[in-house]
Specification:
With 196 residues, this protein is an alpha+beta fold. The chain has 2 helices and 11 strands. Bound molecules: fe (ii) ion (FE2).
């Protein structure tokens, strides 16, 4: 039987996605819309009673995604993410917009801009454009092809909410960048997969 927290959480997540759809219906996936969505997600993440630690198993290593609400018909994916101290992700772009908000812990997001024209396969140049420390009360919003790297700071896991324009199982190709080598590689797209 679902716990009280799980019931309230399911209701809150459904309400959030309703608000997100209202925002994108009006503004599309523009930076303005993503900023508004970020504020909603930060608001939800500020309710730790909805996300008790006992409801979400810790990763064995690195990080773990717990689905909170994944829409049918190729819709949005809302997850609780747990990243362990020291976990890093190289600069990458998801190919789809994403919004993050912290529940606990601290994660540094560094943002990059690609400066080459993409004409040479496997080559890419990126430069740092800024960074945000994602900790309780804050979040980030990224457009479809924004590039970020992440690193968990301190000794506590970084626990947060992540909302993506597609479910992880339906992700497009993700491009990773190696700033020191000026190289790039891509993961296979999952967009061809039959929707769950
Ligand atoms: Fe990412």
């Amino acid at each position: 039987m679902a716990s009280t927290a799980a019931t309230r959480r399911a209701r809150a997540c459904a309400a959030l996605l309703e608000q997100v759809h209202a925002i994108t219906a009006q503004h599309g996936n523009t930076p303005t819309a993503l900023h508004a969505i970020k504020l909603k997600l930060v608001g939800l993440a500020k309710k730790p009673g909805l996300f008790p630690e006992e409801d979400f198993a810790m990763p064995v290593a690195q990080g773990r995604f717990h689905p909170l609400l994944v829409e049918d018909n190729d819709g949005l994916g809302l997850y609780l993410t747990i990243n362990l101290p020291g976990k890093e992700a190289a600069p990458h772009d998801h190919g789809i917009w994403c919004v993050n908000a912290a529940i606990s812990g601290r994660e540094r997001h560094v943002f990059y801009r690609r400066t080459d024209d993409g004409s040479v396969p496997g080559r890419a140049e990126v430069v740092i454009t800024g960074e945000v420390l994602v900790q309780p009360g804050t979040g980030t919003a990224m457009s479809d092809h924004d590039i970020h790297s992440t690193e968990v700071l301190g000794t506590e896991p970084a626990i947060g909410l992540a909302l993506y324009g597609y479910a992880l199982a339906r992700f497009p190709s993700v491009a990773f960048y190696h700033p020191a080598l000026n190289s790039t590689r891509t993961s296979p797209s999952r967009r061809h997969a039959v929707p769950a």
